[in-house]
Design brief:
Elements (H helix, E strand, L loop, with lengths): L2 H8 L14 H22 L7
Amino acid sequence: MPGSLIVGMFGMNTAGLPLTQTPGGFELALLIAAGATGLFYWLLLRAGANLRF
């Protein structure tokens, strides 16, 4: 994993945000972020973007 991703995950300031008092809130936040990324990637592919790495 890229270092910026790891630092970003563990450096999230979650005080006062929704899901902070919920068990598994961090994991749910990661799931939402991954889902949003996947949706954006799918929309780009559907629009015909050339996403070769």
